[in-house]
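Quick one, tokens below. Sequence please?
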């Protein structure tokens, strides 16, 4: 079992920045790739970014590439999502997820989820 808890969401103006954190407990954190997903009202939950078990490799959705950075600190059992140049269309509940050995983009491939943190970007 892995327990995940996100933090760092909030209200920010367009063009601003936020850093989300996801603290993990339970099974060995470094044994799983980690992902961030988001869900806007009335929309499906979509992939945002993933990081490999070591943190050496990352992968991003086209919509956030160049603006968001995913990273992890295995010593702190924490994964981060640094978000910059935020746009109103980034408004959503952001979830971190764990489970697969490799970076994956489909939500059903992740076994463990946090409760989510709201990010609202005003225009």
């Amino acid at each position: 079992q892995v327990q995940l808890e996100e933090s760092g969401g909030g209200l920010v103006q367009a063009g601003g920045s936020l850093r989300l954190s996801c603290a993990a407990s339970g099974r060995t954190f470094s044994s799983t790739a980690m992902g961030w997903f988001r869900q806007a009202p009335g929309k499906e939950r979509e992939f945002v970014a993933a990081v490999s078990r070591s943190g050496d490799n990352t992968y991003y959705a086209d919509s956030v590439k160049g603006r968001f950075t995913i990273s992890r600190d295995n010593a702190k059992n924490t994964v981060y999502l640094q978000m910059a140049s935020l746009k109103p269309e980034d408004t959503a509940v952001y979830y971190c997820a764990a489970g697969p050995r490799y970076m994956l983009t489909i939500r059903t491939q992740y076994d463990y989820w946090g409760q989510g943190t709201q990010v609202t970007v005003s225009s």
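The chain has a mean pLDDT of 95. The longest strand covers residues 18-26.
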